[in-house]
Amino acid sequence: MKYVSEREILGSYKGRRVLVTGHTGFKGSWLVKLLQTAGAEVTGYSLDPPTDPSLFVMAGLAGGMESVTGDVRDFGHLKKVFEETRPEFVFHLAAQPIVRASYKDPVATYETNVMGTVYMCEAVRTTDSVKSFLNVTTDKVYDNREWCWGYRECEPLDGYDPYSNSKSCSELVTHCYKRSFFDSENAGGAAAVSTARAGNVIGGGDFASDRIIPDCVRAAQSGEPLVLRNPASVRPYQHVLEPLFMYLRIAALQPRDRSLSGSYNIGPDGEDCVSTGTLAGIFQRELGNFTIVEHHDENAPHEANFLRLDTTLAEKTFGHRNVWHIGDALKKTAEFYRLYLQGAGAAELSAAMEHQADEYMDAAEALHAGD
Prior knowledge:
It is built from 13 helices and twelve strands. By secondary structure, it is an alpha/beta fold. The strands form three sheets. A seven-stranded parallel beta sheet has the order 3-2-1-4-5-6-10, sandwiched between helices. A three-stranded mixed beta sheet has the order 7-9-11. Helix 8 (212-222) packs across helix 10. The chain is globular, with a radius of gyration of 19 Å.
């Protein structure tokens, strides 16, 4: 299809009612900021911020939305929020997202990531205001055989660890609901439904445990060296704005053309699939103030060594190309963390998020100028 600019996509949310689960997390906070900038009526449904510090709190995002504290495992409360807010667009980001944490508490991981998806799909199914639903999963849903080529959307789903496997199940739950209730002959005005499988994201304001960029920032703060436990592992890294604008694109366009509903890989080009060691080294040059030590733990839980996505389907369907490659993504990420380390307040950090979104949209327009 003909490419639709990021500004036009963002503008389509002006005045629209949008529900975001997991809005207090890293990606959720950036998504909320974009929607606030667009003039959407945003409701968030999430547990308290999962980290301290928290981008959601630091940037003062609660002031421009209705922020509801809730657990996606509580269907009664979730359904009540749907009934009260009558959302038109729903983005499901709430999850237990950490691989190593899923080994420690697999039951809670499955409860949140599988039954949470069931409850979300059921709430969407029984709320006639919803026009578009996007379930955000992960690149780790695939049966990863450590191939050198990217996984396509038609490849088998079978994540190895409890987190990855629970997100594979989340994909299957969504597909079942989509086929049974949303795309059936008697679906009527049911919501358009898609899933998005994104690669590893980086960007300012991530403070999660067991993630490489937050670990770098903590090392810079403490003066302690950064310990890399798996420096050779290769992942598809992208700036957080790359998948978020694709989420917004899919959700905005699929109600206009239901043939766009589906499952999409969202990731960077092959040149942006780099090792953890390479990523840390580039970020060290951008941010400075920390050293790197490699540590190989033979008793560590299993994590994939190589994973890459084939994003041809999303590119052909929506005409999108990646805007910020790894160098630019790490530069923008370091710019934000420098502000944070210098003690910037909420107004300055919120403005920095808005400024980077503007820079991204400008770069996207320049990239697609000839399209």
